[in-house]
Amino acid sequence: MHIPPLPPTAPQTRLRDAAEALETSFLAEMLKSAGLGRAQAAMGGTGSDEFSTFLLEAQAREMVKAGGIGLAESLYQALAARGDHDAP
Fold first, then answer.
1. Any alpha helices (H) in the chain, and if so which ranges?
2. Cβ-proximal residues to 1 (8 Å cutoff; 6+ apart), any chain
3. pTM assigned to the model
4. Any idea which GO molecular function terms this record carries (predicted)?
């Protein structure tokens, strides 16, 4: 008999979402620092820098969805253990 786990509560979901958003931002900055996106910006044109930023953020978001580097999970576990994730 399989008993499914309980769905996360709203504070747990918000905490996990925040941890994933932080990992996404971190990865986007690392990709930018590594020079990814520079090739697209090299094509020139109005808005190419903004497009590169959107592309890097989308790539980072997909990386986090695929498991990321574990930063979001580490942050989530550390903050959940503190127990103050109900604070505004």
1. 10-33, 38-41, 48-65, 71-82
2. none
3. 0.74
4. hydrolase activity
